[in-house]
Amino acid sequence: MIKLIYIVGLTILLMISFSSCEKNKDGNNSNSKCFSEELKISCESQGKVCINKNCVEKKLEEDLCKDFVCNNGSCVIENNKPICKCNENYHEINKTCVSNTKKIKCKDVAPENASSDIIDVDTDPNSIDTPKRLAKMYVNEIMSGRYNSSPSVTAFPNTIKDGDEEEVYYDGMLITRCPITSVCSHHHQPIKGEVFIGILPEKKVLGLSKYSRIVDWVGRRGILQEAATIEICNEIMKVAQCEDVAVYMEATHGCCENRGIKLANSLTQTARLEGCFKDSESVRSEFYSQIQLSKMGK
Question: pTM score, two decimals?
Answer without folding.
Answer: 0.63
